[in-house]
Amino acid sequence: MYNIAKVGRASMLLFFKEIFDGVSKLICDPDTHVKNGAELLDRLIKDIVTESNIFDVDLFVTLVRDRIYTNNDFVRQYLVSWIQLLCSVPDIDLVTHLPKLLDGLFVILGDQKDEIKAMTQQVLNDFLMEINRKGSATNFKAMIVVLLGHSKSAHVSTQLVALIWILRFLELDGANLTFYSAGILNAVLPCLADQNSKTDNFETAVKTKDKLLSLLTESPGTLENMDILDMLSVLLAHIVPSAVYTDSTGREYTSPATISVTTKISVLQWIITLHSKVPHKINSEHEKIFPAVIRTVSDPCDGVVVLSIQLLAAMCIQNSEQDKINFDNFLRSLIARFRNDEKLLERRCSFIIQTLCVHVDSEKVFCTLATLLAEEPDIMFTSLIVQYLNWILLTSPNLTSLRDTLKSQRKGDKQSPNSSTDSATLQLNKTPPPTKPIATKTPSKPGMDKVPLSKKRSNLPDRNGESSSSTNLTEYSLENSLEDSDTMIARALGAEEKELPRNGKQVFSTLYNTWCHDPVSTIALCMIAHSYQHASDVIHALGDFEMTEMTLSGLDKLVQLLESPVFSSLRLELVQPDTNPDLFRSLAGILMLLPQSEAFTLLRNRLECVGVVRAAERTSKQTHETVDIKTLKDMLQHFNTIQTQHALKTVKIGDSKIANA
User: What 3-state class would DSSP assign to 46?
Assistant: First the structure.
């Protein structure tokens, strides 16, 4: 055969099919002589093909495609060598036929032998160079489907080559490939799990993801004309572990058991960007997005939490009635997560709420939380979370505007919303400015990060995070009929409403209704709002209850907080004893409730600087003359009712523990 081919030359191409088939079988013959003869004939036929102008490329592609999925290494090498040869022939356009060969070449790329892998890699590189030269004349759509399949290959090298090809296709003809966005994302996102950013797979995946996003967002009308449900299904499947999402065609995307932080952040950034471009389309899928994203709020990574809150907030701040419902459901779900996950409450409550206040008006956040918590059946949990919220209210630099809303104004005084008091809070709370929320590390309320929720509900921790046994409280007889809480508080605030800024009365009323679940938080709220008269009334009302270690510990912390920058204006008011008699009475009342401790000494030294005792005596008559007894009764009725509920609950818990002992 070799001798005949040597003489016949080009005429042998008429029998190319039979020759190619025979050589492909003999090339793997166990007999060395037969194998060598087949290789010699193969080289001669290749020389004849390169010299001829009548070679049938279509026939060749058919012959290769029928054999390319073989597992025999010799046959694989034989086929790749032929493809490599024809790629080098200028007059033969093999790129046109590449869609029929590409899948098989990627299969061979995963071969165990390095020699075969190297040959196939070179062939694919040659094809890609030719595609770069031809540009848009290539059939990208026919090949992108093949590449998407191999981008998930278990072989890292095969996966990398597929990603490189996908990226290059997007650069050459991206506008016509956006239809495959869901598939591209499904190929790219798993590659982001590689935390080593120096790997080629990771870097190529990032570039591909960014290129696709730019194609979708920079071309006018691209997203408007797309069904983004498929993309959302893929994105959500890479944010919630072990979940299943279905696209518009019924195809299911199953989440991996574990998802990397990099992948979660990329997914959230994608959805946020999509929402900024087509908010109506993203909002229409609220029921699908919300359950997935709310789960990431409890993620241990700050960056994931910040982005998830940013997304949820963006979907709830359009001021429509549905958005209000969505925002209420968001906070209701957040409260439920705090209730069911004690570690989340202890370690992340402060950070989550402060981050939320960066993206949503803090007044809206706190008033909505207070309204929802007022309906919470577990009053012990309500008391606990109120303490966290109160600590955030008093110390967070993000809540300056809310504190300014609560602060009262004397007649003739000018409001100073940008006072140095709140800017100094940064040092107190050790929290970076809100312009960099991802790096925020906000500590939990001191002394509350080491105590299990089960212990906190019955006995909140003291300063060192320790709890004591519950103290039985004297039961109160409740009134048979009580006014609506908000109405009662609003009427009770009548004496001080002129001192509150615009909306201050409503905000104070809403917060007060829930803050009453914790007496120390109630006192702090009154002081930050400059409602010193009512603060004094609440302090004296505590005398009707037995003081628990939890309350004493809270007062201890409050005294220390009074020495912080946030209460600098309050301390300055101490130099005007005749103008602020109720402030003196409040602080003197706290002093009398405290045991002789470090906090007692600290507060006494502060009060002795201005002779508070003499000032209180001198102005006591003025105080009683300006306070309406009915007002005080209404204000205290709600506080006493709430505290009585806690007293009864504490007694029941104590009895239950004794019965189970």
Answer: helix
Task: Identify which of 132, 130, 136, 58 has the alpha carbon closest to the alpha carbon of residue 100.
Answer: 58
Q: At 490, is the pLDDT very low, low, confident or very high (cuts 50, 70, 90)?
A: very low
Rg (C-alpha) for the chain, rounded Å, is: 37
Q: Which is nearest to 473 in space by CA: 623, 640, 319, 344?
A: 640
pLDDT given for residue 635 in this prediction: 58
| Neighbour tally for 478: CB within 10 Å | 12
Return the closest-CA partner of residue 178 out of 210, 202, 213. Answer: 213
Contact (Cβ atoms closer than 8 angstroms) between residue 195 and residue 177:
no
Gap between the Cα atoms of 208 and 381, Å rounded: 47
Q: Read out DSSP for 260-314?
A: -HHHHHHHHHHHHHHHHH-HHHHHHTHHHHHHHHHHHTT-S-HHHHHHHHHHHHH
Distance of alpha carbon 14 from its chain centroid, rounded? Answer: 66
Closest to 406 in 3D by CA, of 530, 559, 591: 530
Q: What is the pLDDT of residue 91?
A: 86
Per-residue pLDDT tens digits for 223-238 = 888 888 889 999 998 9
Contact 168, 184 (CB under 8 A): no
Q: What are phi and psi of 246, to 5 degrees?
A: -115, 135
∠ CA 348-352-358, rounded to 5°: 150
Give the closest residue to 153 by CA, choosing from 144, 163, 165, 145: 163
The DSSP string of 469-491 is -----PPPPPPSS---HHHHHHH
Nearest to 153 by CA among 225, 82, 201: 201
Q: Which of left, alpha, beta for 299 (phi over 0: left; psi -120 to 50: alpha)?
A: beta
383 has pLDDT over 60: yes
Q: What are phi and psi of 42, to 5 degrees?
A: -60, -40
Q: What is the pTM of this model?
A: 0.76
Give the N- to C-terminal CA distance of the chain in Å, as an integer.
Answer: 99
Q: What is the pLDDT of residue 460?
A: 36
**Does position 619 have pLDDT exceeding 80, yes or no?**
no
Reported as a single tens digit per residue, the pLDDT across 239-280 is 888 777 777 677 777 777 788 899 999 999 999 999 999 998
